[in-house]
Amino acid sequence: MKKKKVNLRDLKLNSEEQHSHDDGHDYGDGSAFKTYIPAIISFVMLIVGIAVDYFDALPQFKGWIRVVWYTLAYIPVGFPVIKEGWKSLIKGDVFTEFFLMSIATIGAFIIGEYPEGVAVMLFYAVGELFQNAAVNRAKGNIKALLDVRPNEALVYRNNNYVSVSPETVEIGEKVQVRVGEKIPLDGILLSEKGSFNTAALTGESKPNTIVKGEKVFAGSINLDGVIEIETTKEFKDSSIARILDMVQNATARKSKTELFIRQFARIYTPIVVFLAIGVTFLPYFFVDDYVFRDWLYRALIFLVISCPCALVISIPLGYFGGLGAASKNGILFKGASFLDAMTKVNTLVMDKTGTVTKGVFKIKEVKAIGWEESEFMKYLMAMEEQSTHPIAKAILEYKDEGADYEASEVSEIAGKGLKGIVNGKTVLVGNKALMTANKINVLEETETIVESIVLVAIDGTFAGYVVIADELKDDAKETITSLHKVGVKNIMMLSGDKDSITQKVASELKIEIAKGGLLPEDKLNEVELLKQNPENKIAFIGDGINDAPVLAASDVGIAMGGLGSDVAIETADVIIQTDQPSKVVKAIKISRSTRKIVWQNIILAFGVKLIVLILGAGGLATMWEAVFADVGVALLAILNAVRLQRMEWN
Description:
The protein is an alpha+beta fold.
């Protein structure tokens, strides 16, 4: 899949999410006081005008003076709306909120309801200010990513470190990062170790310690000492760039609810406009004491109420709030549609290694036969130094005092292990097949060991064994329990590891269905079988590399620790930026909270509008009730959506 180049200097979220406010009609982003000046001027003039009208303080405040006063009060908030309505009209988009508000308020002036005309437009402007503030708040977690975008890189060139733009750094160059600075590009740590703040990338506040040779990611902050890294990716392909790209694209992927509401608004608005015309003229044929002014006033109320502001604003804002809340917790959804899909998940299929286990081998048990353990391990470690296998790495982490031995004449026996000379003795290190081939008798107890086992023979005699095992993640057991609590009843583990190990891990986690020894296509077949039951809504969680086919086939594909995985970012629908499987539970909770708030807003908007529409048509509602039904409900819906930013999901 071809990736779009990201402009990191101008992260612009989809304009449709902003309710078309980027077209010039912008009452402000809350960043400058001048944004509020038009609304303040109109508000002060409106209050003064109403007070003079009510107390009859100035007898001269009548006729054309009164009209001019309220017109001047109307212009600061009304002119931008009329301008946008005219632009939309020229483009052929007639039934916009700008057009509706313009016609309704100008109509109020025509029939002499000057204060109400100003009030409707003023409250609409205030609603816009609130909306923009809410949108900015929802964007806060995502825009925070820009704050970790590095601005410079100290690159080693011509025997000196020079400061350059990160975009100009090439793969393989050496970069120095000082304390408190941001890592400019993805790379490999050349220094012995370093401590990094990765909160903006992973949502985790705990410093992350990295040792020499391990990956470091752009946007991480160096906390301890000057370090050096070797770049492995260009700036445009770095982790921070990919995350920004993914978040940007996420806003363009609408949920079915959003799409329905937008389509509904396009049909609903013109219908209400024609009904308003009917309210104005049809009573002439049925009412004896027909008064054009009264029925026009009712029609104008009808128009104000009909504006679908509350729906069109609050629903995308609700989903956007969910996306922002998730990113704050280290969970990246690729679109609002996946927030919806996550709410329906009732079946979770998971990989084992790297998902519920740490994916790092550790020595679980050392048993030496006829040897001191320390001496036995010196022979074994001397041999394993010649191997690059992950098990060899685990064995070499064994710590003991004394000088290490050196191995010579080491040869690899395919599928069995190693043979060599250590301290003048012939040493065999490997599996049961290697021992059998060399007529070495091993202990019967080794037959019952499920985990990976390394057998050792010295000078033709069985010398002992080492059990190597992958560790469960700290929150693995808690995750399974929590998944059941949130309604995910069916949990299955599929692993490429041997079946005996898979079954043991599944037993520890109390997962009833587990299958091991599977190839990627076998996992895909298992998921396809589950999909044959239409009631199953399947999420698959894996490492995003070997499991790419299954991630793509599932209803929701979730990649664990996908920060540095190209395949995870390309394939998965949801990225868990840490290695914590419990984040999946939090993702489900955030999704459900988002959907709940969206539906609360839909019911609130439709319910209040319907009531006031009926009252307005019957002459029982004034323009003030119409303002509440439109702008008031929009504000309530926005405030409801903003709640997502303050929620905690434990």
